[in-house]
Amino acid sequence: MTDERNMTDMTVGVDETVSRAYREVANESAPEHLNQAILAQARKAARPRYARLRAWTRPLAWAATVALSVAVVLEVTQLPAPDGASFDVSTPKFKLDEAEADVHQDAPLDALEEELPAAIAPRRASNFTPQAPQKTGLIHKTAAKSEPAFEKQKGEVSEKAAEPASADEITEMQYNDRDEAVRMQGFALSSSVVHCTEEMTQEPSTWLECIEELEASGHSDEASEQRRLLRETFPEFESS
Amino acid sequence: MVANTQTVAAAGLALSQATQLAYAPIMENVHEQGAIEDSALMLRYVDGDTTAFEALYLRHNDSLYRYLLRLSRHPETAEDVFQEVWGKIIKARANYRPTAKFTTFLYRVAHNCFIDHVRRNKRHTHAHVFEPENQPDPGEQPETLAERSLARRRLNAALLDLPDEQRDVFLLHEEAGLNLDEIASITDTNRETTKSRLRYAVKKLRAAIDEPVETS
């Protein structure tokens, strides 16, 4: 049945005369411009995706590199000159100048730590916190900055913070904030004075330990002075 | 007149040779891949082998163009649909599955594209009707030339006069070489209807060819 059906199918459309006549008539070809367009479309579609990306990633990388380089050069050349009053971060100074004669020996460190960030925070967008010197069991650190000078600086900071900042000021603040933070940190460090308390000086051994601590922490002048006092007070005590 | 015809024929032959030269590298590839089935070529193209697509395209481009040209009876419509068909084949290559003959797949897309095109715009019903210009064989005698020319004109006229469904079935049979079941699946009809349409189409064309030449 299937074979018969197939045979019938084959004979239905077969007419050699018609087919030959049709072949003679139908000799058109697809237009050349269509061939070119379709083959080009096929090639373009078959191109891997990364190849298409690669075509523009290299110029983009070059452009980005050049733009970044120009931006860095402009940034460096247009930075304001360092402020002369600013402190050198790498070598903080601990000298006591004449203005620091009026020291508050008993001002506790905790109070300083609370006041200083509070004074700096309103003007600073960053989370910079001044690093206070470490407190040890033997050395008692106190604020040495004179009260009027500290209050003056604190007042300036608060006054500036209270004013609404313009766009230029904000930009300037961004440049100057780091310097000011360093300045305030230096201020905090330089305003600390270390000395040996009376309790420590009762015993030569504890006094000597205090002196060694002073030397170790870089307070060599103070340590020399304390060592001289130790020799005067306890001439019979021999330090190693 | 005969000399003029021979000149035109020679020019056509030269153009054909130039086209063959232009496509020589691709055709070599086609001959190399002649034994490869259409589905395998399509799968190779899916994997990114553009030479496989070129071979596949050159196998089917002319027959598909003729199918669309005679189905639509308008060169502009045929070109639009032809480009649309191949564009769809290229775009849908990732979804291609060789479950049927590639020819069936190609002509199903072409048939559907043509139907959509007719629905979208009615241009083909008003535009200039296609009239093929057959190039005569330069070696033919004038009498033979005239008879054959007349037979061709009759066949063309009969073909263009066929109802759309019968012409579609006949062209799918002649150009795509599809059998009744494949044509039925493409035209969304049953097998008997397809068989009947094809039989009527062939009968009418045969009658047009066999019509005796009127002598004046």
Share of residues in strands of chain A: under 5%
> What global shape of chain B is seen?
globular
Determine the strand fraction of chain B and express it as a percent band: under 5%
**Rounded Rg of chain B:** 19 Å
How is the main sheet of chain B built?
none
Name the quaternary structure. Answer: heterodimer
Shape of chain A: rod-shaped
Helix content of chain A: 55-70%
Distance between the termini of chain B: 21 Å
Compile the SSE list and pairings.
The complex is a heterodimer of chains A (240) and B (216).
Chain A (H helix, E strand, L loop, with lengths): L1 H11 L3 H10 L6 H15 L2 H29 L31 H12 L19 E4 L3 H16 L4 H24 L1 E4 L8 H13 L3 H14 L7
Antiparallel strand pairs in A: 1-2
Chain B lengths: L1 H21 L1 H9 L5 H9 L3 H23 L2 H17 L10 H19 L2 H4 L15 H20 L2 H12 L4 H8 L3 H20 L6
Helix pairs in contact in B: 2-4, 3-4, 4-5, 4-6, 4-9, 5-6, 6-10, 8-11, 9-11, 10-11
List keywords for this structure.
heterodimer, A: 240 residues, mainly alpha, two-stranded antiparallel sheet, 2 strands, 3% strand, B: 216 residues, 11 helices, 75% helix, globular, disordered N terminus
What do these coordinates show?
The complex is a heterodimer of chains A (240) and B (216). By secondary structure, chain A is mainly alpha-helical. Chain A has nine helices and two strands. Chain A has a two-stranded antiparallel ribbon. In chain A, α8 packs antiparallel against α9. Chain A is rod-shaped. Chain A starts with a helix and ends in a 7-residue tail after the last helix. With 216 residues, chain B is mainly α. In chain B, 75% of the residues lie in helices and 0% in strands. The longest helix of chain B has 23 residues. Chains A and B meet through α2 and α3 of A and α4, α5, α8, α9 and α11 of B.
